[in-house]
UniProtKB/TrEMBL annotation:
Family matches, as Gene3D superfamilies: Phosphatidylinositol (PI) phosphodiesterase
Keywords: Lipoprotein, Signal
Keyword match Cytoplasm: no
Domain of life, source organism: Bacteria
Region forming the signal peptide: 1-26
Cited Pfam families: PI-PLC-C1
Provenance organism: Streptomyces lucensis JCM 4490
This protein's record includes keyword Lipid biosynthesis: no
A Gene Ontology molecular function term of the record: phosphoric diester hydrolase activity
Membrane-spanning ranges: none
Identification of the protein by name: Lipoprotein
Biological process, per Gene Ontology: lipid metabolic process
């Protein structure tokens, strides 16, 4: 089943976005000007039998949990097993091999599945892969930011929208590019994937690790740019955790703050606490609101009605979210593929 996406503006629950003559902004919004839906932990077999089906789902964001296995120098994909793979990614490298090969593969195979699926759907709308680095990177073991970039580049090539693409050879940082709204239109991003990196739960609870994924990749971007090699980067680090105001100022050294334009936090924390989230859309940052079902009044985290999803998408678009996520894998592509105007 192929993914289907709609470009819509919700009025109440859902109303189609009219293409207004002479108004290119309304007819062709930029990536930063829309709100879409993502699936939490889309690699889990209970959600989709095969990862290709997650790609078929229409969702605009799919999450992968990754462990660095320093003993075998492998990138494992699993929720809780750092030494093994437990996922719906297949040993499939070509379109004809999808939907039937053995599962429980490593990150490289997940990327192979994505590349094979991309051959079948070269005109798909942009899809964000939210990668939670459960234990962080281990650069000393050869599993650092540069090796991550190399793996993604080797597997997916030019189908990845990179930090250098946002800079466009014009801007001196991702922050400067975002503030200038240098994001391309959604239509021009067809066939593209974006990678968002967040620190993992194991990493955050490790008292011996204070150098998390976000800071490490932020340093990586800063250093690549200084060396004239920013084109090698394949991901956007995200500021993790809902906060009021600009959370970068208290969390990062001034030298890397301008390399964060993705923000990722709990939807209920943003909304129920009355945080002013206009900061994100005013600066054209990408705001990912997780646990969308938990915003008051809570709805089902697995299978709400279509109308409830539409209303929640409308509410969080009005709160300036770019992407909202939940465990709504059971919903059809006509729902998960909804894309509306950001508030």
């Amino acid at each position: 089943m192929r993914g289907v996406r709609r470009l819509a503006v919700l009025a109440g629950a859902a109303a189609l976005l009219a293409v207004v003559p002479g108004n290119a902004h309304a007819a062709e919004p930029k990536f930063s000007e829309t709100t879409a839906i993502g699936t939490h932990n889309a690699y889990e077999k209970a959600k989709y039998t095969y990862f290709a089906q997650a790609l078929d789902s229409g969702a605009s964001l799919l999450e992968l949990d990754v462990y660095v296995d320093s003993l075998t120098h492998r990138w494992r994909v699993s929720h809780s097993n750092p030494l093994g793979n437990d996922n719906n990614c297949e040993a499939a490298k070509t379109p004809g091999e999808l939907y039937g090969k053995s599962r429980n593969q490593d990150l490289g195979s997940c990327l192979d599945n994505i590349a094979a699926w991309n051959q079948l759907h070269p005109d798909h709308p942009p899809i964000v892969f939210k990668v939670e680095m459960k234990m962080g990177f281990n650069d000393r073991a050869g599993l650092g930011p540069d090796e991550f970039d190399t793996l993604v580049a080797r597997k997916l090539g030019n189908s990845v929208y990179k930090p250098a693409d946002l800079l466009g050879g014009t801007h001196s940082s991702l922050d400067a590019a975002a503030r200038a709204n240098a994001w391309p239109t959604r239509d021009s991003m067809r066939g593209k994937f974006l990678f968002e990196l967040i620190p993992g739960t194991v990493e955050q609870s490790n008292p011996f690790d204070s150098y998390w994924t976000d800071e490490e990749y932020g340093d990586h971007l800063r250093d690549l740019y200084a060396a004239g090699r920013i084109g090698e980067a394949r991901a956007f680090p995200a500021v993790l955790g809902a906060g009021n105001g600009d959370p970068r100022t208290s969390r990062y050294d001034a030298s890397i703050r301008p390399w964060f334009v993705f923000f990722d936090g709990d939807a209920a924390t943003y909304v129920n606490n009355g945080y002013d989230t206009s900061f994100y859309s005013a600066n054209h940052y990408i705001l990912i609101a997780t646990g969308a079902d938990g915003v008051s009044p809570a709805i089902s985290s697995t299978n709400p009605t279509d109308a409830e999803v539409a209303a929640r998408l409308s509410l969080l678009a009005g709160k300036h979210a770019s992407l909202i996520t939940s465990d709504w894998a059971a919903k059809p592509a006509s729902v998960l593929g909804s894309v509306i105007a950001r508030g």
